[in-house]
Amino acid sequence: MEKNIFLGMPFGSYLKSLLTWQNLLLAFIILPGLYLLGYRFYAGLGATTNLTQQQPWGIWIGFDMMTGIALAAGGFTVGAAVEIFNLKKFHAIERPAILTGFLGYLMAVFGLIADLGKPWNMVGIFQYNGTQSVLFEVAWCVALYTTVLFLEFSVPLFEWLKIERLYKPLKKSLLALTVLSVMFSTMHQSALGSLFIIAPGKLHPLWYSQMMFILFFVSAAIAGLCMVIVESAISHKVFSSRVDHHIDILGITIGLAKTASILLFAYAFLKLQAVIDNHALEFIGVGFHGKWWLVEMLVFIALPCGLLAFGSKRESLPIMRWGAAIGVLGIVVNRLNVSVIAWDWKSTNHYVPSLIEVWVSLTLVCIGVVMFRWIVLRMDILSVKHEA
Fold it and tell me: Rounded distance, CA 85 to CA 81, Å?
């Protein structure tokens, strides 16, 4: 086990191998970020953030929580394709998608803990009956789905630890776990959008809709598919020694890109229908928010939709990967628009995140990257040696 942890190198050689510019950059971000995170719990939200009573949610919710959970949706989309719909072509990316989803939810939970004034009160969801609260449902589903993702990730974990008495039962229960993951994901991805339905006066009319729950769920599915394409592209380049190069990465990417382009096409029309239903056509192109809405629709929805469709038809990996990257960025933009930029849009003193908030968010992203790399270099994640 020790040999496996240190990648077959003596401890001294392993430490020397860590002295790379990438690791030094990550350390430069993570170490101060951990200090700032500790300082946030020592000094409180008021001393470390620009949050106010009028703007109680910032990027720790808009980016760490809402965006992180959306980008982690590849776990249930790919898992459902393989385990429920028996699309074995995507079996090779099931484990990376589940790992990305698990780490994404883990970092989102840490971001939520940082945002809560009294994080120890989180245990209240297990003590009190709040079934009429959307937040109560989100909290329960996130807790349960994170647990399901951990159990799914435990399959390669126990395989690596060579604990067969735990590995085999979990392997046999993957179908049941996938059904649970689809159920919990559908509930809380949509419920995150439902949080904004009760605030029609706060959210700009171009983003507000009575069907926010549908928009959030569809965009989460898009984010998950695009994130899997981006993650597979990076993994095949960075972890080439761990990848089984017999995998039909072109065929897998084409399948993901076609599905994502169809969902993006449908999502664009849902967004337009929401604007029409909200009688907000007059706001399009008017002022900063009206112009920024057009940027979101054209650059972050129409453009990746076209690139993914064109790339899949031409069987071009670079075009599909660029389309997926823009699609991922588009979901980030959408979540920040809804929770920060278009929120409380009439206020003259609009929220701008503090440097501590930005640094802590960046720290959580970097920790997720480090954990992903550590696991992939040791466990059977990127190959298809495991039984399909």
Answer: 5
